[in-house]
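REQUEST ID: PR-0412
SUBMITTED BY: lab tech R.K.
PRIORITY: routine
TASK: structure prediction, single protein chain
INPUT:
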Amino acid sequence: MDQMCGRSTGPPLLPVRVVAARLGHADPVITLRVHAHLIRFAESAVVEIFTQALDQGSGP
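STATUS: complete
OUTPUT:
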């Protein structure tokens, strides 16, 4: 699975390799190092989405 990155108020999460190519980075590792804070945000956002989905599905 490809790692994803994105912004809290921007477009949906995108594969890092796509973002790296768009930014002109020769290697997606450069993108990951520079923009690691975005990936951490994405991870916490995914946890929140799953938590909400599980809470809604656990009704009476």
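NOTES: The beta strands are 4-5, 14-15.
REVIEWED BY: pending
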